[in-house]
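Handout, page 2. Input:
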Amino acid sequence: MRCVVFFIKSRWRSKMTDATSEALNVLRQPLQLCGLDPATGYRRDGACSRGQQDVGKHLLCARVTREFLDFSRAQGNDLITPLPAHDFPGLKPGDQWCLCIDRWLQALQAGVAPAVILKATHEAVLETVDLEVLRRYDSEHDTREAPSE
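Output:
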């Protein structure tokens, strides 16, 4: 039975990777993975890819900060507390996570928007946020200090 489950999971992951490789990022290049430790994305496959059931549009890959995590918790979305029943380890500053576009925009207005990983942010984000705004928060040019462990 274990071999069958592994085969099914492998085929599922393979299909997910194929779907991700067809998607484009906001730079109109192939969408890269956002993060696997912890596994992010609506499907928890590491990619900020589109899904019909993802009403929150978890398409924007960000490197979260303490300020953002505290802000999100205050808005009713606690991303810090682990939820083992949902295989969610909780996030810490420096983790990369697929965020809902609306939450990132709320954080932007509040002055706590985290850096964006453009190469891992789905092109559909451009339907809501201008590329120039995203570029201002580009993680490759982020001057905020990395968290110390």
